[in-house]
Structure prediction request, 74 residues.
Amino acid sequence: MDMDLDITEETCPMTFVRTRLALDRLASGGVLRVRLKGEEPWRNVTRNAVTLGHAVLADETLPDGVRLISIRKG
Prediction:
């Protein structure tokens, strides 16, 4: 089962806390699609996901500045 998470209104460190909690609920191989805003949340979420053994599959910036990141749980 895949999951969507919108953390566009969150600030660090809550951006990765919410992302990690969502990843913890996913089965191995599941994909979490994260919507976020800002350079710092993007760096923290992607870096920590990779550090924890997950894979960043996609990273797209929308015209309004929101970033969509897909993370596969390792």
